[in-house]
Each structure stands twice: as C-alpha cells, then as structure tokens.
Amino acid sequence: MQALWEQASCNQLAVPYKYQKVAALIVHWAKYLDEDLDCESESKELHDLFEKRFKFKSTILKLDSNRDPQRQLRRGLDTLVLDHDGPCRNNLLIVYYSGHGLAEPSKGLYITGKENYNPDKSAPGHGYSPHASWNEAEAILQDSSADVLTIIDSCSAGSIWKDAATKDRSWEVLAASNRWDPTAAPGPHSFTRALIDSLTARLDAHPDQLFSVFQLHDDIMKRRNDERSVFRTRHGLNQRYIKLAKLDVRSSHHDEEDLPAYTREAAFMTLRLSFGNRSHLPDEQLKNLARGISRAAAEAELGINKIDLVEFREIEGWCRLSSVVKLCSAVRKAQRLWRGRAARSELKRQRDEEVEEVVDDAGDGFGGVDDEAELSRLHVKRVRTDSKLLPRDGMMTRVGIEPPSPSPSMGSD
C-alpha cells in the first residue's frame, strides 16, 4: 500500500519516488575458510544482480584470517558509509552477509569462517581467528544518515536484534533464521537463492514499480516454504518502510550534488483521514486519493516535496460492529415483511367471515333460498352493517349523513 501511494503521490508532485543512490556491501569469507559452504558463488550472483539489473553500486568484501577479521569488517562498513551515506529517503545502504553464524548471549551475532567455531578460543597456528562480532562492527551504521537494509543469511541470524534509537531514517533487517535456528546451506533451498529469484521475478514483472522489503520477504517465504526467516524493522516509531526498485540510469551515474533537491524536512504536518464505511481501499482508489491530495498540496505552493502514507489501520471491532448492524437491519426488515403479511392475512380472514355471514343471513331471511344464482345476487348486494367495507351510501347513512334527494332534472330524460 505504501509503495503504491508513494509512486502515485511523487509522480503528481514531480519529485523522485525512488532512491537516488543505493550502495551495497556483500560480505563473505574467503574460499579457503568457507570450503564447507562455498557462499562465494551465490554472493557473486547477488552482487551482479544489484549492479547490472538494479543499477546499484555494489562491492564484495572477502574476509580472511591474514588480517584481523573484525577490523576488515569494520573498515568495509566505514568505507560504505564514507562513500555513500546521505540523506535518508534519498540514499539507501544495503549490507549483506552469507556464511556461518552463532549467537553469543548478551553479545549478539558472531560471524565465523568455520562451523561450530568457538570465538573464545585462540586460533590454532598462525593467523587471526576467523570470527567477528557483527553487532560491534555495525555500530558505524547507527550513526549514518541514510536508510539501511541489513540482510543476513546464516544460522542464528536473528540474534542481531537490537532496536536502534528512533530516527527519521528507516532501518530494516531480513534474516534467514531466528535467534537459535539453523538455515539451509547454499543451494536450491537457501535463503539467498530465494532472495535472488524473488528480486529477479519482481524486476521482470514490473521493472519500474516499487516493492517493499516486507513484500520481498513474503515472496521469499513462499518460495522456500519455510517460516523461520524473519523481517523486522529497527527504527523505533518511524513507520516509513524501505521500498526497492531499479534505479534510473541518470541516478546511478551522477554525483550527489547533481541529484534533484531532496533534503531533510524542515517541518511536517500529521493529518488523519477518517473512513466511515470501509476498512479496505482498492489499489485504484488509493492511487486516486494520493493524486488528489498531492495535487492540492502542489497548488498550495508551500514547498511540499513528499506526502507519506504512514499507515492504514482498521478500527478494532469495526467489522464485528458492522456485522451486528447488518444483522439488526435484516431482522427489522424481516419483521416489517412479517407484519405486512400478517395484516394482509387478517384482512383477508375478516373479509371471508363477512361474506359467510352475509350468505347465512340471506338464506335465513328468504326462507331458505336454494338458488345459487339468487345467493350470488344477494351476496353482492347485501353487506353487514358493522363491516369496515361498507359501500359509500351505507357508510354515509351510518355516520348520519343522508344522501341528497334526486333533483327535478334527474331522470327527466
């Protein structure tokens, strides 16, 4: 819903609806440390997809044991932020890791070059221990201004959970597993394989259409038939979500100073639209609403450069209340129909009784008339004096009004 709104409103305001600069850092271990998994091939495929089809800037970082892996990881993230940080909404940083991972109580996620590696033990032989603290290294990202998307394909990937402070920027995480869960190794059932296939399918179907990371995660789960992967936001109360799309060629090849002006907001206004009789907006109606509000904002000439859809929330209990109202309405309608039918039945019964009494009275008054034709004639001409269906003359007599006498001119012909 947010993606549709953003695309429609930004087009109406004539401002970019996509990120203008996206940079990715692809992290995995050197092959001699990663022989049991071989994450390099899938990592390279994701790197190519980002660079060649999405037009993102992408860099591969291979961690080894010749230098301190913790410093290598920290330096890679420092360089990413230094070269590509910028205003949120305009800049997005993507950090991806594939390899072994383990959860350390109170320390978060440790990435390792070997399965079942114990980071508390020193490395045998020469070189550095093939492990690094992810939570420690990503501290640099907490100080950046850009939106951040972290993607972790490892066991215990969910152990990086630690919400950042509420900021204007958005930070989201895609994790292949929860805190203590394993995940599939590289291959047809891996998280990265499903990620690549889902990104490719979205791009093939709608090359210029935005899609949220939440939608991407939903695609991944459907492909894997595995509910252990997790999507989570880390930006506190900020309800602006990251949307992905292929960058425009101009955006991916121009320096930041050449990009359209899209800076931090100086102020914002919160409005609330109240819908009285619906709990869902079809896509076309949502886009029409976005265009209409954006058109009015542009005509106000107040320098409004973005209108965000924060949320569309159904009031709790509205559907149940609506069902009760509909049920009560149906009951009242049924009652009206029943009363109408009952009244008509009663009226018919009274008419039938009156006719029977008239026929009986006629037979008694004429000494037992057996002629059916005569009875029929009497039936038509005689009506009970207490009937509600008296003819006009009988009714006038009953209320004390005599019909007028014939005038001299009447019957002269």
Automatic annotation (TrEMBL):
Which parts of this chain are annotated as the region Disordered? 392-413
Residue ranges constituting the Peptidase C14 caspase domain according to the UniProt record: 24-167
Q: What Pfam families would the database entry show?
A: Peptidase_C14
Q: Which GO terms describe its biological process?
A: proteolysis
What PROSITE patterns does the entry give? IQ (PS50096)
Q: Which GO terms describe its molecular function?
A: cysteine-type endopeptidase activity
Q: Which domain of life is it from?
A: Eukaryota
Protein name (record): Peptidase C14 caspase domain-containing protein
